[in-house]
Amino acid sequence: MGQFIQYIINGVISGSILALIALGIVAVFKATKVVNFAHGHLILFGAYFYFTFSVVLADAPFMPAWVSSWEPAWLIAYAGDAPMFSPRAAIASWVSDLPRILLGLVGALAANAVLALIIERLIMRPLLGQSAFAMILSTVGLIWVLEGSAGLIWTAEAEQVPALGPNFPIRFQLFDQNLFLFSGSLVNLLVALLLFASLMLVLRYTRSGVAIRATAEDQSTAYAMGINVPRVFSTAWLVASTTGAVAGAILASRNGLSPAIGLFGLSVLAVVLMGGLDSFAGVLIASMLVGILSSMAQWKLGGGVAEIVPYVAVLVVILIRPHGFMGQEEIERI
Amino acid sequence: MITGHFKTDYSADEGIWSNWPKRWGLVAALVGLAIFPFVASNYALLLAGQIGIFIVAVVGLNVLIGYTGLMSLGHGAFFAVGAYTTVAIHHEWPLTFPLITLVISTVVAAAFGVLFGLPSLRVKGLYLAVATLSANFIILFLIEQEWLAEWTGGISGTETPNAVFFGVELVSQQAKYFFIMPVMVLMLLFAQNLFRTRFGRALIAIRDKDYSAEILGIALFSYKLKSFAISAAYCGAAGSLWAYFFPAILPEDFGLNMSITLVVCLVAGGMGRTLGPIFGTILILLVPELLKIVAASITGGDATAQTWVSPTRDILFGLMIIGFLIFEPMGLVNIWDRFWRFMSRWPFAK
Q: Are B321 and A140 inside 8 Å of each other by CB?
């Protein structure tokens, strides 16, 4: 039972990251009706930008010393002689990394936003109104463009980046079983869920959120009502790229920075279809389900099976419910 | 558009070679194919063999995407099924006649096509694309499993047999060329002929509007499945040839990369046309080679500068996909048509 709960916890943590990634795909689909196969590579770029700003730039010689390692007197006093891996030592080292983490996040968000705007303007806008096939394939082409550019700009080696939160093991007891998790994963979970929830609130209560929902409902009516539809498209891509940058930073700090992050995005696409392309709630459910199923599969059947869990799950769900858990059914007229 | 349709009776209207450019174009192509291996270098023959195999697969994909209008991003899996069936047959019975292996591989791949075509009844478009993509991952996962490793070689791949015709082992590129090209030509002719039949017209009706086709009395499910079976069979045949052509195969050869390359060949060439797959495959497979040659001449074979060749190739590949979709969505065939239209009217109009 204890092991079971342990794996459920792991599943929820990875599920929350899946949800954060899926968010970007759903946002773009809702606003522009484009299914972004290259979202994983957008995330890859986010991860590389995070690396560039938080490691390469922070350690650059022209940067003030406090950026690469911030050590005010009170922090040194706080850390004192705390033993390694203790919460206090982890928090102290996190605080001293804080400037570079913030620099990395801000830089990654900004750079990814610019990248997304360029993609939207140069590639997606000319294809508006084309068939779904052309849309899918152009984002597939984008995969190669992004992957190749990443290979040209950054060397394709696994690199370490600072984690978003302090990282120390937390041990606790439940049902007389010892369970543990890393505080870093807990921070990732909170960040992912907070972003997800705040985006829901933005969509519901702000002007631009209402504009996105109206465009999702009916593009031409939205135009007629004076909504700037092209700007809605840009907004959607901005949302996708910025949440993607955060997801990239999380993934890179969790598993190391490598081009494999891009492929991860494809399995998220399966999750999105499972939940329903245009339903945030459905996608959240599907992400949690896939996260938990994968971690169960890892426990019982080994890591190889865990990798194809999303694909098997999406096949089963699509066969039973063609539009996912909560996706809206398309109505075709002849 | 090729001019010269001078028909005087209905039998001429039904003919495959409706006019002289088609007839003589075919003859010229066949003669060219027959002469090519005697003048080409080994490297050119290697490329030609690869292109021939890919053409078979892309023609099969054309049946599904171009003529039936069903999207698939998982045909690399059927390619894998064909290749691994061939390897497995030769593992059990080393001296099987290659054509028998080819036929069996084709049939097995068709069976897998029917199995993974099942979602096409419920879903289409994007959902089908992702369903087939999932099928691709699942089939490759199965191939990599330990309990199949005796036949498939598992994750580390396996060596493949050479084709043996009546005691003659096909080892040289030239010999393999003479095995691949007749198969390719026959399968091209079959595909070209398929769409003059009732069956082919039914598929085209499904592409144009599936519900309308159903109202006209076309059994959607069975036709969609048959279309999946035919296209998977083509890919299976291509896979079998692939296994004979290359000394070894790896599961990852048949991953998403191959599936998407197949689709890209089709899009670059032009969907729903017989010439499309030929043009597209030649373009998509030759451009990386050209890039390699250009890069070698620029860098002078400098090893450190070579590191940017592979990323550049990726970028070029991606840009070609996007470029075709934005500027020439009908593919190379459209350029070809425009050229002949221009020629037939010249000098009177543009």
A: yes
Given CB atoms, is A126 within the 8 Å cutoff of chain B?
yes
Number of folded domains that form chain B: 1
**Domains, chain A, ranges and CATH?**
2-320 (1.10.3470)
Instruction: Please state at what angle helix A2-32 crosses helix A39-51, rounded to 10 degrees.
Output: 110
Q: Which two tokens stand for residue B127?
A: 């959902």
Residue B147 lies in a domain: yes
* CB contact A130 to B (< 8 Å): yes
ipTM: 0.83
Range(s) of the domain holding residue B134: 40-345
Query: Is residue A249 within 8 Å of residue A195, measured between CB atoms?
Result: no
Short-list B319, B309, B218, CA closest to B264 = B319
Report CB contact under 8 Å: B211, A151. no
Kindly list the distances between the CA atom of residue B98 and the CA atoms of A313, B47, B90, B162, B212, in Å, as whole numbers in the listed order: 38, 22, 9, 9, 43
Give residue A234's identity as a one-letter amino acid code: S
The Cα-based distances of A64 to A96, A163, B133, B169 in angstroms read 14, 21, 49, 71
Phi/psi of residue B12, nearest 5 degrees: -65, -35
Question: Sign of dihedral through CA atoms B299, B300, B303, B306?
Answer: positive
Q: How does pLDDT run across A204-250, given as a tens digit for each residue?
A: 899 888 898 888 888 888 889 999 888 899 999 999 999 999 999 99
CA distance B123 to chain A (A): 6
